[in-house]
User: Fold this.
Amino acid sequence: MLDRRAALTLLAGGAVAANLSPGQADARPASFSFETVRARARALAGRPYVAPPPPPAEVAAMNYDAAQAVGFYREKIPLWGGDWGIELFPLSQGVSKTVTIHLVEDGRAKPLAYDPTMFSSPAGSPVRALPAKAGFSGFRAISRDDRGEWLVFHGASYFRSPAPFGQYGLSARAIAADTYAVQPEEFPDWREVWLERDAQGRLVIHALMESPGIVGAYRFVNDRDGLALTQTVQASVFFRRAFDQMGLAPLTSMFWYGEDRAVPAVDWRPEIHDSDGLAIWTGAGERLWRPLSNPRRVVTSVFSDQTPKGFGLIQRDRDFEHYHDDQAKAERRPSVWVEPIGDWGKGSVRLVEIPTDSETNDNIVAFWTPDAPVKAGSKVELSYRLHWTADAPETELAKVVATRSGRPGEPGRDTAAQGRKVAVEFRGANLLALRTAIDIEADVTARNGQIRLLSHYPGARHENETDALWRVTFDVVCDGAEPADVRVVLRQNGRPLSETWTALIFPPAP
Assistant:
């Protein structure tokens, strides 16, 4: 049932505009705020889902190459900020659902009409055959000084930025609903977007998201500091049905292989990944590092926590010599750190790793799942910041910089040894003065496994070094068919000197 207050807010905030044709605009648009979007989402959640109409038939001809050839005339940009402007995307095969775009000025919203003259295209381009009221598929924010785009909302509830290195990589999205859970995954779409320049000249995005079981209202305040980007996100999500695993503040990336190549070489490049680790800062203050992997089967790892300080998918390896890819520029791929605002309570950071045999598939997902179950008629209120950055927040602890594995046993002696040899490398300025220390301990534990041949030692000294490398090596033998859950941390007199490395070590394939 739709309560009267929500119905009145819906009518005041968007129902009139939604009934206009794309070429129309209300002469006296109603006042607008994020509460308008939240009330609209609440009202929609109380109604049965209505699927959007199918795209125009002409969209079928807008393949990838045709879409890439479409440009946007700068003089047609509908909204400028101090150093940014907004460009729009037409419909295409890849993103064929229409997103209604509104502009907010002086606290009032007006729908933006589709205009085919906004777009430049070569002669014969299928974009020219799209209907006059085709609508938009998304938008991007560009820099006024021709440094290119710095934010894109395009497809489902995804968005991404090339900050801070000017190179795209992983994506964020609004929600991850039942990702490889009991029920099939549900992918909501951005249905309406309101774009606003606030008093500080920042781009503020209000967005309405919907799918059969979910309706969400989101607000993004985008703060730029040079090439860096921080997004402050406020979300109100309403559920029409129950879900088994709700993923909040999700990040999606790709990991094919890294320095610990688990499969024979099928590509000439030494490493191929958009992110190489999941970093977590727990509510208790522990800093965790889970190296990403390309498993033989789908693996979901659960890191239980309470009031987390943050988590993120990180591209830590910034050395071009480790990739040798002049086109993909993997060493410039961004990291994203999720910083909760307020108390997120009890829940878990979850990492889903999906097998892949190429770099074209996003096979890594990380998100926060509350302990409280998502039931039909329930809602979630959430605030957080997304930092598009180089690494996790700074720490005095040494960081994990590489994970390697290979045949177990002592080289040249025990060729029949069981398990897997693992080498974890830590690097930090705090280790520099400890090269000759005798009280450094490698604290290595394994659940469902045994640790053998444990050794740890400082790496080779380098001239003019400002930090030091420390290597921990050991064999892991699984107790059965399930993987061993291993943790490694360097300590001195019980005090941690490093992040805690944690990984699942699987038994050898039969």
